[in-house]
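Lecture 7 notes: from sequence to structure.

We start with a single chain of 144 residues. Read the sequence below before looking at the structure.
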Amino acid sequence: MKTFLLFATVATLIFTACQNNEATQKALHDEVIAKHDTLMAKMDEVITNKNKLEYILTKLSTLKQEHITLDTNLLKLEIDSSKTALNIADDAMMSWMHNFNPDYSEKSHDEVIDYLNDQKHKIDSVKILFNSSLNHSNSLISKY
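Now the structure, written as tokens:
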């Protein structure tokens, strides 16, 4: 009888530990995916801003007539730099999505947690690129 109680206790502990591991993995996975989803919602703004910056480039001569002191060469450089930053953010997102692998079947719990923490760090880096490129492009667009 003691052996049965010991076995039942150990089995219960193992079962509980497995459930906790799965819950931890799921929570971390869901957090990473939520960050991804938030950034995906900003993809339209990235594309729109690239188009608006391109439009401003086509209107440089008109802008120069309206603002005699405007340095159109400097503005062109700023626009090109802003478009490059938007492209880098877009490329970083595409790269992250391409490399993200949600199949954890061959990994231990610790490996999954390490992987998801790494992915969380990477998607946070993409978020920084998105925010800075969008802030800069929005500022530039609002001027013209």
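Residues 27-143 form one domain. Keep this in mind for problem set 3.
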